[in-house]
Structures are given as C-alpha cells and as structure tokens.
Amino acid sequence: MNKKNLTTFPNSETLALAFANHFAQKADEAIRTRGRFLAVLSGGGTPLKSYRLLAQEPFKSQVDWAKVHLFWGDERFVPHDDPQSNFYQAKEALLDHVNIPAENLHPMPTELSPREAVDAYRQVLSSFAEPSQNHIRFDLVLLGLGDDGHTASLFVGQSALWINPIISTEGDYQGRPSTRLTLTSIVINQAREIVFMVSGASKADALANALGDEKDLNRFPSQAISGRVRWIVDEDSIPSS
C-alpha cells in the first residue's frame, strides 16, 4: 500500500482532533490570503466528531465563521430536516452552534427534482468561481471512504457517469437505496487541498484498494480523486500486513 501523504492517528478521537485543527488552520490561511474560506463537508459518521469539536472552544472562536462558506460533497434526496440528510447532521453537530451566516451555507437543493437540483447547484458553484477559472476552486474538500470503496456518492461501477462536475445518481449502499446528488472528480480535483478521513476496521480493505498499485476507477472510485490529496486515518483502518 502506497503510504505517501498518509498520516495515521491512534484512534478516532485523535483523528477528529487533527482534522478540527487542520480545518481551523486552513480557514485562517484562506481568509488572510483571499478573504474567504470555501470548504466542502462530508457526510457519514466519521466527520461528526470533528464537527462537534469545531462547535466548541477553542475552535469556535478561532474560526472567522462570517467568512466561511460551506458546501456539501453529496446528499441524499431527503428534506434538510431529515436525520439522514448530510446537511441536517452537520447542522446538529456544528452549524447550530457557531456564528455562521445562513447565506454562507450552501446545501444541495433536494427540494427540487434531480435534474433541477443538478442545474441549481451548478449555478451556485459557478457563482463562486474566479474569473480565470472554469470551476469553483475549493480551499478544502473533506471526503470519506465507504466500506465498498465509494467516496462522496461516486459508487462502484458508475464511473461512466462522472462526466459533469455535479450529477444525480442512484446509490444502494449497505441496504439503503436512494437517489443522490454528488460532486464528481471534475470539480473536486480543482481544490487547493483534498483530505480523506478514514476510521474503523471495516474500512481496511477499501483503504488498501484506494492506495494500492492496481488502478481501476470503476472498482475503486476514490482513485479518481487526484491533486493535492492527504489521507488521515486511524490505526484501526490500516490493513494488517
């Protein structure tokens, strides 16, 4: 397994703290340099510990939330107040506890049809692109890794669909079928930094495949993510030799 740009932490708690620190540092750098911080949040259980830390001191006061804009890498087509919503989970863990303006939150518009939602979110992202850019350039994108190797809602066997920056797709992950909206590698790979956050023994095979020598985007969707990528993982997710 290629361990370049991989940092291992003893457990999920130290992993969560590491990302919270990194988020605060990157926010400060971006705001001082460009006047704003554009970050993409991930769903799933692993990031929630970091979100809860960011909602507390010292991070709560360290981050200039008025200059932070938050986006989402993927979302189920459920209402924003549904517990299965990635936006709702982030809201409960973080957003309700910090002074971030409502207009700085950019959840995926799941109240629309999939086709309408794709077009609407593309317009939102385009409004943040700098004049010299074809796509928005996020300062930080946080991604997770599914047990089956998917990331965001880029699922195994669907690589032929990843032809636009934002797509709707059908996911059936761990018995939870649903329509999803997801960013693709086209826009994710433009980011100034991409962080994969991986925790738990159930992710060991997926992590080994993601960082393995065999390249197959259709089987290992996370391999489509390139550029300035960092992997932060806990010891449980490291494959046994």
Can you tag this structure with a few keywords?
single chain; Rossmann fold; seven-stranded parallel beta sheet; alpha/beta; 241 residues
Round the mean pLDDT to the nearest integer and report it: 94
Largest sheet: 7 strands, parallel
Q: What's the CATH topology label?
A: Rossmann fold
Specify the helix fraction band. 25-40%
The H-and-E topology, N to C, reads as EHEHHEEHEHEEEHEHE
State the total count of DSSP E strands: 10
What is the oligomeric state here? single chain
Report what the structure shows.
This protein has helices at 12-34, 48-54, 59-62, 86-93, 114-126, 185-188, 204-210, and strands spanning 6-9, 37-41, 68-72, 74-76, 105-106, 140-143, 166-173, 176-183, 194-198, 229-234. The chain has 241 residues and is an alpha/beta fold. It has a single domain, classed as Rossmann fold (3-Layer(aba) Sandwich), CATH 3.40.50.1360. The strands form 2 sheets. A 7-stranded parallel β-sheet has the order 1-10-9-6-2-3-5, with helices on one face. It has a 3-stranded antiparallel β-sheet with strand order 4-8-7. A hairpin with a 2-residue loop joins strand 7 (166-173) and strand 8. The longest helix is centred in the first third of the chain and has 23 residues, at 12-34. The protein is globular. The model has no long low-confidence stretch (mean pLDDT 94).
